Amino acid sequence: MDAGKRIGNFVKDNLVLVTIMILVLVTAVLEPKFLTIANMGNLMNQFGPLSFVALGMTLAIIGGFIDLSVAGIVSLSAVFTLSMIDVLGQFGALLAGLLAGALLGLINAGVVVSCGALTQAKALFITYGLSAVFSASALLYTDGATQHMSHLENRTDLFQAIGSGRMGFVPVSFLLFVVIMALLHLFLIRTQTGREICLGGANITAAQLAGIPVKRRIALVFTLSGVLSAFGAIVLFSRITTASPLLGANYETNAILAVVVGGTSLSGGRGSVIRTMLGVMLVILLSNCLNLLGVSTYLQSVLKGAVLIIAIWIDRRRVK
Amino acid sequence: MSVVRKVVREIEKRKALTAILLMLFIMVFFDTRFYTAYNLLDMLNSAAILEMLAFGVTLVIICGGCDFSIGAMMSLSGIITIKLMDHMPLGFAICAAIACGALAGFVNGFFVVKQKTEPFIITLGMGMLLKGIAQQITDAHPVPAKNLTFMKIANGKVLFGIPNLIIIMVVMLLVFYYILRYTSFGRNCYAVGGDYNVATQSGIRAERIKWSAFVICGAMAAFCGVLLSSRLNTGSSIYGDSTALSVNCGCVVGGTSFAGGVGGVPQSFIGLLAIQLLENCMNMLGISAYVQQVCEGIIILLILWFDNYAQKRKEEAV
Amino acid sequence: MGRELSDRILSVEHVSKSFPGVKALDDVSLEVGRGVVHGIVGENGAGKSTLMKILSGVYTKDSGTVEFDGQRVERTTPMESLRRGLSIIYQEFSLISSMTVGENIFLGRFREAGGMKGTHQKAGELLGQIGSSISTHKLVSELSTSEKQMVEIAKALSFESKLIIMDEPSSSLTEEELAKLGALIRQMREKGISILYISHKLDEIFEYCDVVTIMRDGHVIDTRPVSELDRGEMVGMMVGRTIENEYPERPRAVGEPLMRVEHLTTGKLKDISFTLNRGEILGFVGLVGAGRTEIVRAIYGADKVKRKEVRIEGKSLKITSPRDGKRCGMALVPEDRKQQGLVLPFSVESNISMANLEKVKRGIFLSPDKERKMAEENIDSLLIKTPSPTAAIVNLSGGNQQKCIIARWLETEPKIFIMDEPTRGIDVGAKYEIYMLMKKAVEAGSSIILISSELPEVLHMSNRVLTIADGRITGEFDPEKVSAQEIMNRAIG
């Protein structure tokens, strides 16, 4: 085999890694300070809220669905959790926030399963509609006002630690991300339930006929996605110390972007949370790079849209 | 069949119309301002642009697709028109904006028809991209239009004091109705959405039909964008954020199913009218904007739920 | 010579067609005369529908020639065939149910027909010609089966067809509707239109057809005027003699009753009751669409039912999902291997382990070692040909894929093994191996319900056979005592 072909194949199989390497190189040339330890910490910090939402989205996509309600869940659980700090104390609020995420995810699953929208295409509409309901509920809940952590009476150091604390140069949120990712990876690869989710995502009919309780697995997938979105929301408002009811806007598309760019197939069943980490990394490096090049944030979102469309295209071609 | 059952069936078939009548009836008891010619005409006038968006979307849904990029397309085309107006005749600027819409529709169609991508996801991505372009062009600030003629397009009253928008909408309604009902292209749309394989086997160029539907829908969204920016005399990247969902679902309320092959422009007209009327009623009753949004969301969800549930029942018929 | 040409509307010579693993048509030759009603009979899988799809242009033939109306036809499309004058009326109609009758007749020819008005007017005339009074404005979804057939026939006539192929036109027609169809066929013959009448139902062949061709296993067995044949002869040719060593010796392990199914009723099935004994292979014989698959799916809990009572070993069980079915000791090898059986993107080992994940756990985690071991054991014992247990299952041949599904279920040690078309699309060698697996399974104490469209297979493997027609059990036979003809007769209904 000639070398050219071999390199070509390597690039094709590891498109994400190659792109990440190129981006690192470009950035390093543009900004010599890029490869310093201090900057590594900054980079990890940027994993932030999106990475958690993307983990939930990965689960949903591997399970054969796309959860578009995450935008609504992020908004609603952010304003809800923040408002609960004064009522339940910070630990209680954290728990309540995660529970709220789980509940919203369960509502998703309930609606999807009860009307038999068990294909990806059908469930898309449902979760999108639910996103609208959740977002509107967030507005209703706060009457459209933005809430501020500094106005609270109770202590908020737990949230401060989650949002912007560091252990050494490593941000706490990044550590949490790595731990959750590792657990999810273990869950998907090495547990029966995780395997059943993957099988159901790839062929729901075959999985059902093999005796797998697919509806319960769907409920689990959406619930986990909801919890992770809520956690993303908590990281987000802790970091910016305010929670607006519009906080979650565009989170669904960005999360899908990270998952698909990472190489998890939209056709379900195949993929991994580790790929999603690479996807998030790629998105972060891309915006870093574009920032350094002085590209406006708006043009960046255009480029992100274009990258998403291209990634979907590549995914389709691979399936075919 | 008993009379009662017949009535029930008829209501089931014409959900949107029934809802409209019900709302009109309820409003009799509440607010006298509701039944003024001014309010009703104003409502129709403000519904006109959404209605026209729905005509294009109806075409796509009948072909078995959907288009969630229309909101962003609408805001972008308004901005393009206003930006170009200063450099070229108004007519050209409008045509250019509409061409952009057609182009976006063309790309949507390419992915749906040629790459077999889920129309929902690709049009959503396209919407995000178009919105980004709109923000980039305007730096996310509203852009005012300085041309008086432009403003008059949507705000004037040329015929018998009827607002232009309503006239344009009625003309468009008739045009789309004619296309879908009496042209080969229109009928083939129904065939393609009804059963893609049978349509292909009957010698219908299904790919081309579906693709064209997306192009027309994109162009129509751009046209609506021109009208909207003319009406408000500004272009802004924030217009149309929630439009896509309510328009697509409005069509379904009227009886155009996401399963494809059924429905029509009059149905979508009624469906969107029902949604607009609901908004108007809630306004009149002094319900807060946020409660309205929640209600609208829940209603849309119910519609989607029933659309799916009906399909499930059909498939499972014991 | 010229006269002879004009006498033939269609001639097929030496046409063959293969699909991966199966030869669907093998050197088939056939001639259809002008104005002749020509019957084709054969069992499921005899190659009738493949032939039909080649004629219409859905499939392309591998070799041989087709001549239609004096012209050589090489590659064609369904639309071209229609325009040339060859219409096909499929069993599952090619109509768009959300559109009106008139528009369906002129589908894709809106302009030719002269718009909406012309469409309905011309469609009305065509329907009038065949004595039908269906309103052209009605939606196809509101029509009965026989009305839909009328629409299809009107559509065929609208193309001025010279040859109309009808695939199982009589299925789900009432007596009265059938008589109407018969009259219509005669009417068309008088106009000089040829008809290729494909059916299982021999009575109709004798009533309507002038000539009949008998097909089996992708071959044409014989073509003869109907008057020269009697029913027995025809069934004999359809069933054929089989080579004995295609099948292993019939297993004999039948014991006491194991499962009793009573009053199984759904929209399609009417009060099905039967018993399955331990160690028995119970064959279900019936035509495609008779309700065989529906029975087993309902028992297994995959479909909703109106009424059902299942007792296994005397215990009354409530089975409402496949999970329940599995828990009660059932296993289902589904009809459609790719859509319902396999998870194609996954490996051989995870396809085997997917119904047995509890067995490959160590603590709360799945053990890759145990999973590998389970796969390897099955690969060895079932002789599955795969490069490795981690190979993607999509790359295996049909027979080996099927063995993986059987392996998946053997690991659950099922009491009742339901096999729906277990050998469809599989080559002869692999078939024999699957028969051996069935034999081993019953000898180990399982019971098998076997559904197959290949009559010889059911007759050779089963201890007992139930015939099923139109959602009812129509007979029970001992395949060793009763001839294939008799069973076929009963299954045809």
Low-confidence stretches of chain B: none
Query: What is the succession of H and E elements of chain B?
Result: HHHHHHEHHHHHEHHH
Q: How large is the radius of gyration of chain C? A: 25 Å
Oligomer: heterotrimer
Adjacency order of strands in the biggest sheet of chain B:
1-2
Structure summary, number of beta strands of chain C: 22
β-strand amount of chain B: under 5%
Q: How is this structure best described in words?
A:
The complex is a heterotrimer of chains A (320), B (318) and C (493). Chain A is an all-alpha fold and 320 residues long. Chain A has helices spanning 3-13, 15-30, 37-45, 48-62, 70-114, 120-142, 157-164, 172-190, 192-202, 204-209, 214-240, 251-262, 273-292, 297-319, and strands spanning 147-148, 166-167, 170-171, 242-243. A two-stranded antiparallel sheet of chain A has the order 1-4. Chain A has a two-stranded antiparallel ribbon with strand order 2-3. The longest helix of chain A is centred in the N-terminal third of the chain and has 45 residues, at 70-114. By secondary structure, chain B is an all-alpha fold. Chain B is built from 14 helices and two strands; from the N terminus they run H-H-H-H-H-H-E-H-H-H-H-H-E-H-H-H. In chain B, helix 3 runs antiparallel to helix 11 (206-232), helix 4 runs parallel beside helix 6 and helix 12 packs across helix 14 (289-316). Chain B is globular. The model of chain B has no long low-confidence stretch (mean pLDDT 85). With 493 residues, chain C is α/β, with parallel strands linked by helices. Chain C has helices spanning 2-7, 48-56, 78-84, 101-105, 115-129, 145-158, 175-190, 202-208, 231-239, 292-300, 322-327, 337-341, 348-353, 368-381, 398-410, 428-443, 455-461, 484-492, and strands at residues 8-19, 22-33, 37-41, 63-68, 71-73, 86-89, 163-167, 194-198, 211-216, 219-225, 257-265, 272-277, 281-286, 307-312, 315-317, 330-333, 361-362, 365-366, 416-420, 447-451, 464-469, 472-477. The chains are: A mainly alpha (320), B mainly alpha (318), C alpha/beta (493).
